[in-house]
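hey can u run this one w/ iron/sulfur cluster bound, need the structure tokens asap thx
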Amino acid sequence: MVIKDEVAKCNRCGFCLAACPVYQVTGIETKAPRGRNFLARSLLHKNFTWSEETKESLFQCLGCRACVEACFPAVETDEVVVSMRSDYFREFGEPWLQRYLFRRLLPDPKKLSAAVKQASLLRRGASLMRALSFLPWLNRDFLRALDLLPPLPGQSLREQWPGLFEEKRKKERRVAYFGGCAFNFAMPNIGLSTLGLLATGGFRVFWPEHGCCGLPAYGHGDLEGAKIMARKNLETFKNLDVEAVVTECASCSSFLKKYSILLSQEPGFAGLAQNFSSRVKDISEFLFLSDLSFQRTEFGEIATFHDPCHLNRFQKIRSQPRELLKKVPGLNLVEMVEADWCCGGGAGLNLSNYDLAMKILQRKMENVQKSKAQVLITSCPGCYLQLKHGAKKSGMAIEVRYLTEILAGKG
Ligand code: SF4
Ligand code: SF4
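ok here u go:
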């Protein structure tokens, strides 16, 4: 995509304003898609130079793509934003810690695992984290956002994996599992539900040791960091003879499908990426296509589904999770208003701009409350943690659950 051409498509009609969650709570034009495109065009044509306001405009975007759906020429403002973030780092340099995270730590599963173990020790002493708050990257927003993160379990999913479902691994249909970092390190029970669904559904599951999918780097504008992770993952999965690569993380599945575009200009990887991306399936589309039934006990509660942006807008997967939930005995699925409105956790906005992300979350939680659901279900770890935080903050009597947990009958 040529970004200059993309921003030139914006005719400043303003249809996107009502769709943008950030504009809806700030009311500031430079934080609307139209304003972001205007600033990007001005920067690209050298009519402007970067200022604090410009930076804020281009870094306070959820990457939710609601604007793209509302826009007649379908200006891809989320891609414009990513490209401008990348330009910013090219001009002013990327913070060393961020660069280390995206280019050294996240691509390397062994280093990442060791770092998470260290972090879990640090986290137990939350006061130590707070004492370190003079460090520029441990800002006030980040410290408050620590409450969003679940306590780290004693054992990661990877540590529990050897021997798991051994009997069921002898099945003929073969799939690979891409276990997102959030499930591996922080929420292994959700990963176990997913693996259990695949195993009992008749699939032999392979799980090679891999790193992060690369989306966090891409969303932050470190395009080379994202490519490093993509290349490493392609190498890791290339010799696996499987019919699909399945993940329960909507963000991972959307980005793994994007490898074919990300590496399309690299002769050594373009073919591999094309083949890999064509086999990636989000768990909801995979289970839906596999037509499995779920052996779970009667559910007996009213539930509603929140559409993660990376599932709904990036992959156009809307009906599949709902159809799967309708198969759960006793589950009464109701639709909430604006089920596809971003929860405020997109692109890690809750870590960098806590107050803004909470204002966006409030609208979501009000709609959840109006639905009268007792259980709120979603299928992206970022949304899951943000919604759990919203339920806790608002004191609402609602349980937040992950799609595969419900399908597997956990709890
Ligand atoms: S981004 Fe699209 S909807 Fe928004 S002002 Fe530009 S053309 Fe109109
Ligand atoms: S991607 Fe989402 S947050 Fe960003 S400009 Fe578009 S609607 Fe607004």
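The radius of gyration is 21 Å. anyway lmk if its weird
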